[in-house]
Specification:
Molybdopterin biosynthesis moea protein, domain 2, elongated, 6-stranded mixed beta sheet, Molybdenum Cofactor Biosythetic Enzyme, Chain A
Length: 417
C-alpha cells in the first residue's frame, strides 16, 4: 500500500470496491430521481387509440381536397364527440363529426380540421347541420396515432436510466405502476473524539458540538442514501473497533470523521487494519490529506478527517461517487467549468488544492472568487460556496485571469454545461 496517492487513484480504488446494493420493487413516486435496475416494458400501446390532437371536425380528407374560399365545401355533421366518449357510427363521404381534444377518432375518418377555421351552420354541431370548409387538409392531420409513443412490449426505460418527473408520467401512461431499483445504501455516520458532545448539549470549555455528523448525514441523503447518526465514539481503539464491528454487520457503508491522522489518539487506521483490510491512508490533496479507506467484512469503511472542510471535501471526492455507484448511477463525477480567477492564488503547498469558492457566469465566460478564509475548520465558508476551485499539484502559483477547473457543488452529475 502506497503512503500517498493521487485523488484519481484514490477514487479508482474506492469505486473498485463499491458493489451494487440489492434490487427491490418500489412505486413510481418512490423511484423518482433513481436509476432503474432493470429495463421497463410498456404494458400497452401509448396512445392506446388514435385520437384528436385538438378541438375540430373529424372527416375524410378527400372530401375537402378541392375546398377553397371561393369554392367552400359543406359536410353534414353527424354529431359531437367528447373525450372519454365513443362514436358508434362510421363517417361516410360527405360527413363529419364535431370532435374534442383527446376523443377517439371515429371509424371512417382520417383527418381532423381545427375548429377555428371551420364555419358551422347556425354555430351548432347538432346532427344534420352543416360544417363549411374553405381549405383542404393533409391525410392524418391533427391526429395522435395509436402506439405513437410506445407499443406494447417496447422497452420504455433502459437499465440505469434515471426516472425524472416526465419519465414517471410516461411510465404511468404505459401502465407501469412499479419499477425495480437498487436499494438506497444504509450509511452509518460515526464521529470520533472525546471532545465532542451532541448538538443539544452545552459544551464545556474543552468541548465542541458534533457538527460533522449532521453535514455528512446530509451529504449522504443528498447522494440518495439513508444515513444514521451513530453515538459519538470517544478516543479509544477498543470502543472504535466495537462500533465498526457492529456497523459493518448491519450497514452498507461506514463513514467516520476524526482520528484519521497519525497522532497518539488517532485510531481509525489501526481499527480498520485490525478488523479487515486497510487500503488507503493519505491522499495528495488539501483539505483532506488524511483519508483512510478499507474493507471490514466486505463493507467499505471511510475514515475522514475531523476538520469540517476536510471531511466535507473528502466525502464529495470519494464517498458520494461510491454511494451513487451502489445505486446504479453511471454518472459519478460532478460537473465542472473552467473559470477565470478573480485574484492571485499563491501556492505554498505542493498538494492539489480544492479552494472553497463561488463561480459566476458573465456572458460566455465563467469567473471564480475563492473565499478569503480557506481554513479547513470552517463550515460557513462552504455554505457560501458553490464550487471547489482546483489548483493543481506543484508549487506554481496562479494569477488573476488564469483559468482553473471548478467542480460544481449541488449540481447533478448528469448536468451538461
Amino acid at each position: 500500500m502506497r503512503e500517498m496517492i493521487s485523488p484519481e487513484e484514490a477514487k479508482s480504488l474506492v469505486l473498485a470496491e463499491a458493489q451494487p446494493t440489492e434490487v427491490e420493487t418500489c412505486s413510481l413516486i418512490e423511484a423518482l430521481g433513481r436509476p432503474v435496475a432493470e429495463k421497463v416494458l410498456s404494458t400497452c400501446d401509448v396512445a392506446p387509440f388514435a385520437h384528436s390532437a385538438m378541438d375540430g371536425y373529424a372527416l375524410r380528407c378527400a372530401d375537402i381536397a378541392h375546398a377553397s374560399s371561393e369554392h367552400p365545401v359543406s359536410l353534414r355533421v353527424l354529431g359531437e364527440l367528447a373525450a372519454g366518449d365513443w362514436f358508434d357510427g362510421e363517417v361516410q363521404a360527405g360527413q363529419c363529426v364535431r370532435i374534442m381534444t383527446g376523443a377517439p377518432l371515429p371509424q371512417g375518418a382520417d383527418s381532423v380540421v381545427k375548429f377555428e377555421i371551420v364555419k358551422a351552420d347556425a354555430g351548432t354541431a347538432q346532427p344534420g347541420t352543416q360544417a363549411i370548409f374553405s381549405a383542404p387538409t393533409a391525410l392524418r392531420s391533427n391526429i395522435r396515432e395509436a402506439g405513437e409513443e410506445a407499443k406494447q412490449g417496447d422497452i420504455v426505460m433502459s437499465t440505469s436510466e434515471i426516472v425524472n418527473p416526465a419519465g414517471l408520467g410516461f411510465l404511468a401512461s404505459c401502465g407501469v405502476s412499479s419499477v425495480r431499483v437498487h436499494k438506497k445504501p444504509r450509511v452509518a455516520i460515526i464521529s470520533i473524539g472525546s471532545e465532542l458532545v451532541d448538538i443539544a448539549s452545552t459544551p464545556t470549555r474543552a468541548q465542541i458540538r458534533n457538527s460533522n455528523a449532521y453535514a455528512l448525514s446530509a451529504s449522504a441523503l443528498e447522494a440518495g442514501a439513508v444515513a444514521d447518526i451513530r453515538p459519538i465514539v470517544h478516543d479509544s481503539l477498543d470502543d472504535l473497533k466495537k462500533e465498526i464491528e457492529y456497523c459493518t454487520s448491519c450497514y452498507d457503508v461506514v463513514v467516520t470523521s476524526g482520528g484519521a491522522s497519525n497522532g497518539d489518539f488517532d485510531f481509525i487506521k489501526p481499527a480498520i487494519d485490525s478488523l479487515g483490510t486497510l487500503m488507503m491512508t493519505t491522499v495528495n490533496m488539501r483539505p483532506g490529506k488524511a483519508v483512510a479507506f478499507g474493507l471490514v467484512h466486505d463493507v467499505p469503511v471511510f475514515g475522514l478527517p475531523g476538520n469540517p472542510a476536510a471531511a466535507y471535501v473528502s466525502f464529495e471526492m470519494f464517498v458520494r461517487p461510491t454511494l451513487r455507484k451502489m445505486q446504479g448511477y453511471t454518472c459519478l463525477e460532478r460537473g465542472f467549468v473552467w473559470a477565470h480567477l478573480d485574484v492571485d492564488v499563491k501556492k505554498r503547498d505542493p498538494r492539489r488544492i480544492y479552494l472553497r469558492a463561488r463561480v459566476r457566469r458573465e456572458g460566455d465566460s465563467y469567473y471564480v472568487s475563492p473565499a478569503q478564509n480557506q481554513s479547513s475548520g470552517l463550515f460557513g465558508v462552504i455554505q457560501c460556496s458553490n464550487c471547489l476551485a482546483t489548483i493543481p499539484e506543484g508549487l506554481e502559483s496562479k494569477h488573476a485571469g488564469d483559468k482553473v477547473k471548478c467542480i460544481l457543488l449541488g449540481v447533478s452529475e448528469d448536468s451538461v454545461f
